[in-house]
Design brief:
The protein is mainly beta. The protein is built from one helix and ten strands; from the N terminus they run βββαβββββββ.
């Protein structure tokens, strides 16, 4: 059973930073484009950032310049460094393959105080 484990969320003041981590099974990590997603209450889950196996990254416009996605091959972990956080970034953050076909993990909650 594939299990994605996200961590690193918490409560932070607007303007602050958090780094999220996602441990990915090795057989998936090596070959697939991975992504971070987020879902705020009452909204659809959206793709925040993606990263390919050769480290090509993409971002939605609202986080460009503030978020950085990266991957550590030795630790089969995907990270999301989030800086200059805004209240609208508050959500539960998840990782998955770009095709969203893996079972979803529990996510990690990000809360922003203004």
């Amino acid at each position: 059973q594939v299990q994605l484990v996200e961590s690193g969320g918490g409560l932070v003041q607007a303007g602050g930073s958090l780094r999220l981590s996602c441990i990915v099974p090795r057989n998936i990590f090596d070959d697939d484009v991975m992504a971070w997603y987020r879902q705020a209450p009452g909204k659809q889950r959206e793709t925040v950032a993606t990263i390919s196996s050769d480290d090509f990254a993409t971002y939605i416009s609202s986080v460009k310049g503030r978020f950085t996605i990266s991957r550590d091959n030795a630790k089969n972990t995907v990270y999301l460094q989030m800086n200059s956080l805004k209240p609208e970034d508050a959500a539960i953050y998840y990782c998955n393959r770009l095709d969203r076909q893996l079972p979803w993990g529990r996510g990690t909650q990000v809360a922003i105080s203004s």
